[in-house]
């Protein structure tokens, strides 16, 4: 799937996986078979066209499908553990189609990133860029959830949660992103509901309070803070993360339930 179509110059591994999962969500709701067929085609293309010795190429040029030059200091232009979030598309396709190749592809990506994720953080000499990388690393933790019950995955979830929480707190006086707080709160709840990591209720409560402080009067959420000052713009992606995370937290603290949210990761 091209990143843009005027002209279609690049395709991103990460975006392709998110598109597959969106198509499958739409297919589950309306059963339009072309959406499922397209999701399968993209899933196969992800395995075939993006394959690299160190995982998966982050970006391909179009129409020749050649790997774009990487930048080790820009996470979106490098392969890394965050790509496991996109590999969840293969786990979804395996469940829907029963095709073993998709399940094997997810398991391969999982094993590869469990070995490699330790080098992703901090990953940059600039603390402000490390905060950006926390956003990407939290995608990795989400990508672990289909295998959360496996013994080799639980330690990675525990370790990842500790590392993100520690680095976020360390960098926050200089720069803080509201979506990082929201993602961290979400993954705490998801990991707890999956039976993988016992919820740290005190930490989750602090994060919910911090996140609420980013909400504007009109209901949106500010992107972040620099030096303690709110960034003067509201980010729609940050707002989506924040609204969901706080709704999940409210539902958990009020009703102790997860039913509404268990399929929304």
Question: Could you characterize the architecture of this molecule?
Answer:
This protein is mainly alpha-helical and 265 residues long. The chain contains 9 helices and 8 strands. The strands form 3 sheets. Strands 1-4-5 form a 3-stranded antiparallel beta sheet. A hairpin with a 2-residue loop joins strand 2 and strand 3. Helix 1 packs antiparallel against helix 2 and helix 5 runs antiparallel to helix 6. It is globular. The mean pLDDT is 94.
Question: What gyration radius follows from the Cα positions, in whole Å?
Answer: 18 Å
Adjacency order of strands in the biggest sheet: 1-4-5
Structural class: mainly alpha
- Give me the count of strands: 8
Cα end-to-end separation: 22 Å
Low-confidence stretches: none
Our count of helices gives 9
| Biggest sheet architecture | 3 strands, antiparallel
Secondary structure: helix percent: 55-70%
Choose one word for the global shape: globular
Share of residues in strands: 5-15%
Order of helices and strands: EHHEEEEHHHHEHHEEH
What is the mean pLDDT?
Answer: 94
What attributes does this structure have?
mainly alpha, 8 strands
Give a short overview:
It is built from 9 helices and 8 strands. The protein has helices at 13-30, 33-49, 83-97, 100-116, 127-143, 154-171, 178-193, 201-212, 236-255; strands at 10-12, 51-52, 55-56, 59-61, 66-67, 175-177, 224-226, 229-230. The strands form 3 sheets. A 3-stranded antiparallel β-sheet has the order 1-4-5. A 3-stranded antiparallel β-sheet has the order 6-7-8.
């Amino acid at each position: 799937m091209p990143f843009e179509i005027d002209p279609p110059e690049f395709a991103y591994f990460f975006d392709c996986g998110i598109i597959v999962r969106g198509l499958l969500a739409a297919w589950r709701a309306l059963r339009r078979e072309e959406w499922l067929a397209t999701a399968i085609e993209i899933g196969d293309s992800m395995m075939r066209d993006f394959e690299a010795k160190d995982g998966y190429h982050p970006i391909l040029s179009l129409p020749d499908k050649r790997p774009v030059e990487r930048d080790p200091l820009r996470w979106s232009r490098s392969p890394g553990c965050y790509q496991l979030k996109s590999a969840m598309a293969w786990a979804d396709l395996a469940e829907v189609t029963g095709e073993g190749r998709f399940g094997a592809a997810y398991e391969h990506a999982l094993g590869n990133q469990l070995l490699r994720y330790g080098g992703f953080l901090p990953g940059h000499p600039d603390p402000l860029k490390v905060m950006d990388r926390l956003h990407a690393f939290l995608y990795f933790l989400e990508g672990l959830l289909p295998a959360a019950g496996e013994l080799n995955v639980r330690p990675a979830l525990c370790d990842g949660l500790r590392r993100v929480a520690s680095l976020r707190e360390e960098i926050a006086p200089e720069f803080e992103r509201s979506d990082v707080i929201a993602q961290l709160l979400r993954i705490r709840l998801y990991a707890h509901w999956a039976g993988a990591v016992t919820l740290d209720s005190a930490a989750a409560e602090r994060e919910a309070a911090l996140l609420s402080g980013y909400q504007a009067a009109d209901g949106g959420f500010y992107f972040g803070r620099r030096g303690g000052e709110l960034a003067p713009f509201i980010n729609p992606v940050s707002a989506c993360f924040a609204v969901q995370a706080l709704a999940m937290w409210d539902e958990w603290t009020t009703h102790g339930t997860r039913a509404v949210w268990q399929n929304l990761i």
